[in-house]
Amino acid sequence: MDKSTAAAAQQRVAGYRRRFDTRFEAYFDSLAESLDTPPLSRFTPRCLELLRDLSLRGGKRLRVALLYEAARLVTGEQVPGLEEAALSIELLQTHGLVHDDIIDDSPVRRGGPSTYYAYRREFPGDDGTALGLAVLAGDLASFLSMHVLLGADAPAERKQAMLEVQSRAGAETVAGQIADLERDFEALPSEDLLHTVCEYKTTRYSILAPLRLGLLAAGEHLAGHDERLRRYATPAGISGQMRDDYLDLFGDEDVTGKSPGSDIRSGRRSYAVRAVLAAATAAERSLLESALGDPGCTAETIGRIRRIAREHGVDDALRAAMLRHAQEAAGEASGWRAHWREEAVAFFEGLPLWNVQRAH
């Protein structure tokens, strides 16, 4: 697995993103006529407008790429149902983003206002209404995610199997969000606990579900392949989450588009935060613990924590760990050549390496 393979994977991801964003925009345009909403309601159209804005405002669309490349493992022909499955995946992602921003009290998402804070600005002094509307917006995205799959151009049996995969992924992701909150009550969560949270909150719907959906749409039976999909998804998910956590503390704001330290301000004991807590002296740990969960934590304090982390080699250790997990995933994918098409297998080999190299 070399850099050229990773670059090829990156190019394919970019291509899927361009094509999908056009289709996603058309989907939201169609909702005005296809979705039966209360005719006298002013709030419902605004809810759909905010969901559209958040959904179309960026995102790497890695899930979409995984979906289409999973189908290409089986066939190079056009596969019915993939378009609807891609919409379903990204609508479920929108649901997760809306609810995550409520839980984390995040004002910004993808360079713009979070749905929750957009409502807070529209209902100043009425946080209850803002909260209720944001929760309902996230719920609506979740139900739309399931509904769009019902219209998939696929045989009924395949469509039923795809709906089962996606509904299970949604439920497991919510369970992961619950475990994510539970994790932050641990003074120093174990790495195994962080791996578990990562699997349920992220990996199962961001990697495993797109793989399963793509294979199902292409007519593949999962029974003989599901274990190898898990062996790929688990280290790939851990590697990607470590990268996100690394960028949150060590990333360049000019590149990432957001100020560092959001995990610290939200009180999240991420992979990076856990590593600093484990390596720090008592005085350094006290500084970090006082900053955890403080939304007013200053950039200067975040800078001090970042310097402490670098002094203890946390940045180097995280990079080494994410690379190790990425290589494990790529190694698993390399064994897929005995079962699936070479071209798509090469994509799955290259994707984890590109993911750990990305700067945003």
From TrEMBL:
Top-rank lineage group of the source organism: Bacteria
Keyword field: Isoprene biosynthesis, Magnesium, Metal-binding, Transferase
EC number of the protein: 2.5.1.-
Family: Belongs to the FPP/GGPP synthase family.
InterPro entries: Isoprenoid_synthase_dom_sf, Polyprenyl_synt, Polyprenyl_synt_CS
One Pfam match: polyprenyl_synt
Protein name: Polyprenyl synthetase family protein
Gene Ontology MF terms in the entry: transferase activity
Gene3D superfamilies: Farnesyl Diphosphate Synthase
Cofactor(s) the protein needs: Mg(2+)
